[in-house]
Design a protein that fits this description.
The structure is a single chain. About 5% of the residues lie in helices and about 45% in strands.
Length: about 450
């Protein structure tokens, strides 16, 4: 039976039930006589196993739970579509199957007994085929990552790792030390293995970027480390001994998913605000991404706003946010409410103008009123002079001029014979009204009073 002897079974069971940890594909856990299904990980319910074997590893893939056992006769595999209802499957051999994983469309299990047959594979979890292991070591854990299956062993001399690109053809690899390697996992681009024992102090962890070349790392304590997994930016390992120190971690927690962003549309852009997530590790930055199109901006810090540029006016956009820190990047938030960038309305042309005091020239048969009008742009200039006697309003003259551009224009208004005749009889008070209407704009008015003394 190799390394897993009766005396160790209760240790594995106590580890899983007390610590509440079951490593993912790298699981090296034992369920002795039953299968537990988690409801959100908080409360657990006993489920009937298909046989009272010593179930040592479980994984999930392609819509199916698969467990393997180190006891039983021809029935050392069970499967379940839901984790509740289990069915016995024929194992490829009655080896002591310790660990099972799923990757690249294949279930792969490893054992610590058998002669040249310590691997079995299945595309569906039901039909299994024996594969030749790279060595007859006590293979204790298997995982999949970065396109390669990796298994670790607690026996062998310098060959306590084997790898396979397909789960079928296996190659021995040099382990970083001849420790009793009990568990291996993959996360964040790194394979990590932990050991139960080690001849050198503080060397019960090894890592590899490719599963082939391994480096010893200093473990946090020389405990009997049994299982390791990766999630939320952190490697977590658990041990079977130690006083108040039976868990060790490596890495930094990834921030929680940010709250739903809010967005305000601009001209070809949007200003997006992201609030800090509730709980979890602090974010050092946020990335906001627009949909459609994928335009983005970055917020430095735990919260704040940034402007997403390059958006098309008239197109509705939603925005998601991710939070990042040294541990990694969170999943994307839910999308914001849609906003539509819009070009600002064209500003009305200016109608601000100035006019000089009217100059008067009295001739024998007429009176000329002349002003100089400064306008800001193209438009129409008009001048009108009126007199009022009682309630009677009399227009004495009008004049108009078209302004082609911003400039100073001279406008002359000629009061004819009747006005000249009136001035012979009495003085006149003229209300001189000058208007400017810019092209495409609104009219503006300036009025001045011009008093003319009686002149025969």
């Amino acid at each position: 039976m190799g390394f897993v002897k009766a005396g160790f079974l209760s240790v594995f069971v106590a580890l899983v039930l007390a610590a509440g940890v079951a490593a993912a594909p790298a699981a090296a856990s034992v369920f002795d006589g039953g299968v537990s299904a988690a409801e959100l990980g908080d409360s657990w319910t006993i489920r009937a196993s298909a046989a009272d074997n010593q179930w040592t590893g479980v994984t999930y893939g392609n819509g199916l739970f698969v467990a393997v056992s180190n006891t039983g006769t021809g029935d050392r595999v069970i499967t379940s579509p839901d984790g509740i209802n289990w069915t016995i499957r024929a194992s490829a051999a009655d080896n002591d199957w310790i660990s099972v994983t799923y990757g690249n469309g294949l279930f792969v299990a490893v054992s610590n007994t058998g002669t040249g047959n310590r691997v079995m594979t299945s595309p569906d979890g039901i039909n299994w085929t024996i594969r030749a292991s790279a060595a007859d070591n006590d293979w204790f854990s298997v995982t999949y990552g970065n396109g390669v299956f990796v298994a670790v062993s607690n026996t062998g001399t310098g060959d306590r790792v084997m790898t396979s690109p397909d789960g079928i053809n296996w190659t021995s690899r040099t382990s970083a030390a001849n420790d009793a390697w009990t568990s291996v996992t993959y996360g964040n681009g790194l394979f990590v293995a932990v050991s139960f024992t080690g001849p050198i102090t503080g060397n019960r962890v090894m890592t590899s970027a490719d599963g082939i070349n391994w480096t010893i790392r200093t473990s946090a304590a020389d405990n009997d480390w049994f299982s390791v997994t990766y999630g939320n930016g952190v490697f977590v390992a658990v041990s079977a001994n130690g006083t108040g120190n039976r868990v060790m971690t490596s890495g930094e927690l990834i921030p929680n998913v940010p709250a739903v962003p809010s967005a305000v549309a601009g001209d070809g852009s949007a200003t997006v605000t992201v609030s800090a997530a509730t709980g979890g590790a602090a974010a050092t930055s946020h990335t906001v991404t627009a949909s459609p199109g994928g335009a983005s901006c970055t917020i430095a810090g735990a919260s704040g706003s940034c402007v997403v540029p390059g958006l098309a006016n008239g197109t509705a956009y939603t925005f998601t946010a991710t939070a990042s820190n040294a541990g990694g990047t969170s999943a994307a938030s839910a999308a914001s409410a849609a906003v539509t960038p819009t070009a600002p309305p064209t500003p009305a042309p200016s109608n601000v103008f100035t006019v000089t005091k009217a100059k008067v020239k009295v001739a024998k048969a007429s009176i000329l009123l002349t002003t100089r009008v400064t306008v800001p742009g193209a438009g129409r200039i008009a001048l009108k002079a009126t007199t009022k006697k009682g309630t009677k309003l009399t227009t004495r003259c009008t004049a108009a001029k078209t302004a082609a551009r911003a400039a100073v224009y001279t406008v002359t208004c000629k009061i004819g014979k009747s006005g000249r005749a009136a001035l012979r009889k009495a003085k006149l008070t003229l209300a001189v009204r000058t208007t400017f209407t810019p092209t495409g704009g609104t009219l503006a008015t300036k009025t001045q009073t011009v008093k003319l003394a009686r002149k025969r």
